Amino acid sequence: MSGHSKWSTIKRKKAATDEKRGQVFTRIARELSIVAREGGGDPDSNFRLRLVMDKAKQVNMPKDNIERAIKRGTGELKGEVLEELMYEGYAPNGIALLLATLTDNRNRVVAEIRRILNRYGGKLAESGAVSYLFEQQGFISAEAGEGDPEELALLAIDEGAVDVNVESGNLEIYTDPKDLQKVKEALEAQGVALTSAELTMTPMAMNELGESDTFKVMRIIEALEELDDVQHVFSNLFLTPELVINYEEAQT
Q: pLDDT tens, position by position, for the chain (252 residues)?
């Protein structure tokens, strides 16, 4: 079982309270539209759509907003034409970055990403320069509640989980993408409260820096996440909850 917390996991938990509600809704609406366009508007036959709908419900996105976003994706309503693009780059000290974007203007998004990277000492990279350092996985975070977290971890492994971290009654579970649905449904059948279930890009190795250099990378990641067209920022930065606390205290 994994003994470390990943940057994306910690940021995901933080995002629920720190990001502006409107920005969260906009990002999820765009994601709903794109997955509905690619796989259809029926969540029973489009598992990725069901995952995004679950995410929308977790942040209390209104039902009407969810339905409109899906209809824009299926063409029932008119809407912006979005492209799903992945950009690659480096933060200071060679930290690898993958930026998942949804945009209606690729010239705008690449200019904004380049501006942020240049400002903070990073740089854009060519396609393939850092993507080989990551692999796509399913990710689930859950609260064990009344259940035994170790038993739930073993259940997840039996259903196909490849990496499980248990800490203070919380579980972080990584799966092969094809096994995400099976593991998710097995946990839900046990009454486990899932706080997240989605596809993510996981670094195959983490890069650990000193605190000062870690903070520099955290600042550039946060600046990139503020861009409207950026859905997710993945990195191979090693990060602990203690570092997050220290970083937040340093910003006040």
A: 333 345 445 555 555 554 577 888 989 999 999 999 999 999 999 999 999 999 999 889 999 999 999 999 999 988 778 899 999 999 999 999 999 999 999 999 999 999 999 999 999 999 999 999 999 999 999 888 888 889 999 999 999 999 998 887 889 999 999 999 999 999 999 988 888 899 999 999 999 999 999 999 999 999 999 999 999 999 999 988 788 888 888 877
Q: Could you give the angle at which helices 149-158 and 180-189 cross, rounded to 10 degrees?
A: 140
- Return d(Cα 164, Cα 139) in angstroms, integer: 10
Nearest to 175 by CA among 149, 153, 191: 153
Phi and psi at residue 181, to the nearest 5°:
-60, -45
Classify each residue of 156-186 as buried b or exposed e, where b means 16 or more C-beta atoms within 10 Å of its C-beta. bbebbbbbbbbeeeebbbbbeeebbbbbbeb
Encoding tokens for residue 122? 């990073």
Q: Which of 16, 7, 14, 18 is nearest to 240 (CA)?
A: 7
Domains and CATH numbers, the chain: 18-74 (1.10.10.200), 84-132+206-251 (3.30.70.980), 133-203 (3.30.70.980)
Tokens of 28: 């999820």
